[in-house]
């Protein structure tokens, strides 16, 4: 299997150059989800084969694109930035990493997102574009129902659906002793969104639960990505998949 690593849409990188790209991003803590995400995918082939085994996928050539942008082509809105998009010939796998967010942050349903700000017409246009992408992967999209779906969940799903025959959305839920009690509730929340989306056979959703152990102390003066060049910042412990 040939594997290309990317940050956005540039040429293929080696892993150390990829880490350099992440070193330029602003994070508030070592417990930001991008840190265990990058650490996890350092062992690229092993984890890619495990993922493909679970999804029952086969591919010879794939591209792994970190911070993958999908721009709404209607209305004016920010690109949906997928943490990691795995792209094959006829499929995409959108990887969304979560660590402490599912414990500390509340979801924002589409209905609430639409009410924010002044330009409602523009927001309806942006949402309409995401719906265009998702619609072929749903048995039936009900506008009155999907407004209860978390907006980020919806546009991440839309990103996976663009220009492919088969789509997958995989939530990598990292947890430790401080966050493990929030995993079950977060999975239940994701399952609710999947049900409201009413997916057909062209799209599948998974939770990839990954237990981690922190090996490096959180220090505002220390760049964890730079440290990752020479040592592990997190230890990968137990992991497993749940179909949502």
Labels describing this entry:
244 residues; 7-stranded mixed beta sheet; alpha/beta; 7 strands; 10 helices
Describe the structure.
With 244 residues, the chain is of the alpha/beta class. It has one domain. Helix content is 36%, strand content 26%. The protein has a 7-stranded mixed beta sheet.
Estimated radius of gyration: 18 Å
Mean pLDDT: 90
Structural shape: globular
Widest sheet, order of strands = 1-2-3-4-5-6-7
- End-to-end Cα distance: 28 Å
Number of folding domains?
A: 1
Count of individual helical segments: 10
- The structural class is alpha/beta
Question: Could you spell the SSE succession in H and E letters?
Answer: EHHHEEEHHHHHEHEHE
> What's the helical proportion of residues?
25-40%
The overall strand count is 7
The profile of the biggest β sheet is: 7 strands, mixed
Q: How large a portion of the residues is in β-strands, by DSSP E? A: 25-35%
**Low-confidence parts, pLDDT < 50 over ≥5 residues?**
none
Summarize the structure.
With 244 residues, the chain is of the alpha/beta class. The protein has helices at 15-23, 34-40, 44-55, 101-104, 110-115, 120-134, 143-146, 151-161, 183-197, 224-227, and strands at 2-7, 61-70, 80-87, 91-98, 166-175, 203-214, 234-243.
Secondary structure topology:
Blueprint: E1 2-7, H1 15-23, H2 34-40, H3 44-55, E2 61-70, E3 80-87, E4 91-98, H4 101-104, H5 110-115, H6 120-134, H7 143-146, H8 151-161, E5 166-175, H9 183-197, E6 203-214, H10 224-227, E7 234-243
Parallel strand pairs: 1-2, 4-5, 5-6
Antiparallel strand pairs: 2-3, 3-4, 6-7
Helix pairs in contact: 6-8
